[in-house]
UniProtKB/TrEMBL annotation:
<protein>
    <recommendedName>
        <fullName>Molybdenum cofactor biosynthesis protein B</fullName>
    </recommendedName>
</protein>
<keyword id="KW-0501">Molybdenum cofactor biosynthesis</keyword>
<dbReference type="GO" id="GO:0006777">
    <property type="term" value="P:Mo-molybdopterin cofactor biosynthetic process"/>
</dbReference>
<dbReference type="InterPro" id="IPR008284">
    <property type="entry name" value="MoCF_biosynth_CS"/>
</dbReference>
<dbReference type="InterPro" id="IPR001453">
    <property type="entry name" value="MoaB/Mog_dom"/>
</dbReference>
<comment type="pathway">
    <text>Cofactor biosynthesis; molybdopterin biosynthesis.</text>
</comment>
<dbReference type="InterPro" id="IPR012245">
    <property type="entry name" value="MoaB"/>
</dbReference>
<comment type="function">
    <text>May be involved in the biosynthesis of molybdopterin.</text>
</comment>
<comment type="similarity">
    <text>Belongs to the MoaB/Mog family.</text>
</comment>
<dbReference type="GO" id="GO:0005829">
    <property type="term" value="C:cytosol"/>
</dbReference>
<feature type="domain" description="MoaB/Mog">
    <location>
        <begin position="11"/>
        <end position="155"/>
    </location>
</feature>
<dbReference type="InterPro" id="IPR013484">
    <property type="entry name" value="MoaB_proteobac"/>
</dbReference>
<dbReference type="Pfam" id="PF00994">
    <property type="entry name" value="MoCF_biosynth"/>
</dbReference>
<dbReference type="InterPro" id="IPR036425">
    <property type="entry name" value="MoaB/Mog-like_dom_sf"/>
</dbReference>
Length: 171
């Protein structure tokens, strides 16, 4: 299996009833960071917090074989409008519980017990990695810099998500 760096095609979705592309600081951070790491931005979109609209957008992206990963920011809290987990979880073929666990562990050092309110999670859907992050820029920075970036780097040892990609459709 090759350990060479690979440029991924990554879609970014901001789930928000109030943000626009112009003021989406979390999405802008992710788009800048993924491109700085050598990946390609597939698209950056905004969607209001509506579970069926979120699900439709993400379903379209995971059906596109050119999309390797989806990063979603927002809608992972506990308010009545937060519905990203309910929208995305039914699309997953496999969950990645370690991501949410690690994210909350790392968040503890920044926000203490408030990390209990995070429903950040990740998984695999149709050979596409999907990460659902809180909407704050600091949460997106933590997730990218301490977890996702290394797993999207084919040289990360002892293993990384990029190295698994050729085997995702094994039966």
């Amino acid at each position: 299996m090759s350990e060479l760096p690979r440029s991924l095609s990554i879609a970014v979705l901001c789930v928000s009833d109030s943000r626009t592309l112009e003021n989406d600081s979390s999405g802008r951070y992710l788009t800048d960071a993924l491109q700085a790491a050598g990946h390609q931005l597939y698209t950056h979109e905004i969607c209001r917090d509506d579970r069926y609209r979120i699900r439709a957008i993400v379903a379209t992206w995971i059906a596109d074989p050119t999309v390797d990963a989806v990063l979603i920011t927002g809608g992972t809290g506990f308010t009545g409008r937060d519905s990203t987990p309910e929208a995305v979880a039914p699309l997953l073929d496999k969950e990645m519980p370690g991501f949410g666990e690690m994210f909350r562990m790392l968040s503890w050092h920044e926000i203490g017990t408030s990390t209990m309110q995070s429903r950040a999670f990740a998984g695999l859907a149709n050979k596409t990695f999907v990460f659902c992050l809180p909407g704050s820029s600091s949460a997106c920075r933590l997730a990218w810099e301490q977890l996702i970036r290394a797993q999207f780097d084919g040289t990360t040892k002892p293993c990384n998500l990029v190295g698994l990609m050729p085997r995702l459709d094994e039966r």
